[in-house]
Amino acid sequence: MNSNTTILVLDAGGTNLVFNAVQDGKVTGTPVVLPAPSETLEVFLQKLIAGFKTVNKQSGSRARAISFCFPGPADYEHGIIGDLENLPFFRGGVPLKRMLESHFHIPVFINNDGDLFALGEALGGILPEINRQSKKQYKNLLGVTLGTGFGGGMVINNQLLPGDNSAAAEINRMSNILNRNQSVEEVLSIRGIRKLYAEMASMDAADSPEPFDLYKIARGEKAGHQQAALDAWDTFSTVLADAVANAITLTDSNVVIGGGLSGAYPVFLPKTVELLNGHFTDSAGKTTPRLEISVFNWHNPHQREQFLRSEPKKIAVPFSDEMIEWDHHKKVAIAISSLGTSEAVALGAYHFALEHLS
Predict the structure, then answer these.
(1) pLDDT recorded at residue 3
(2) How would you classify the pairing of strands 313-316 and 323-326?
């Protein structure tokens, strides 16, 4: 596939539709941003067509494909969008892929935002950054997004894991460790952190500050109930650590975090990593590490150095004089997006389209 291939991409969020053109692995031109809220399905679909038309014209070359993320549940393989909570006019199923292919006469690929975020970070973001500095080369990555909701994606051996039902890595369906009748998304989201603060500050949730303000309140950089903010982020960390620990148990991978709440990582990531490295206690009082793998905060210089340090030891091969080196330390890092969530999604959409076009 020619490296100059142009792919039209879209990051479809609950607030905005952000359209871009990607060429040679880089976003070109100026993003086109349209408001996501729409009165009818027809109005929304016309926005999609208009946005893709505009970025295609800006790119200066005819696009080879459209590739974008869209909220689920959906049958992504066939491009059919199902019953969306935030866009109720999609209920009953809308064949979005077929509609756009008929209009633009080029292939259309639709995927989950968490999936494309993870793929972008795996191929052009945090995973290459880790591998440039690490003697060991990593091929797997769990991506999680913290924003309007809690999303996820999994890359195994540099390939996206879609699942048999377009539902792999849908970690928002994990249960909340503090209330097993709730999903983790009730905490790990914008509404979740605002609600936690409101409860701890004894105020109405509607009056709770926005997450960035809660981050500044927790750090003492803005007026507010600092202890309530600290307690809210502490609870957030507890729920996040449990969800990520359960996922890492299956994926054995590095982790990257994106989404609108990821910028508050200084107040939630240290506690999250501490809990990931915690212990279980059995009925006899014996402790066992929570994970078989040690987790390191990529943004803590000391922990990053520990993660990158290679400490092989020599062990003997039975029935011979031969000695071999073995680094028995099992490690993964957890990091914040190095690209920014929208760019990672765009890059993931680009690579996903290239793979299928070729």
Answers:
(1) 55
(2) antiparallel
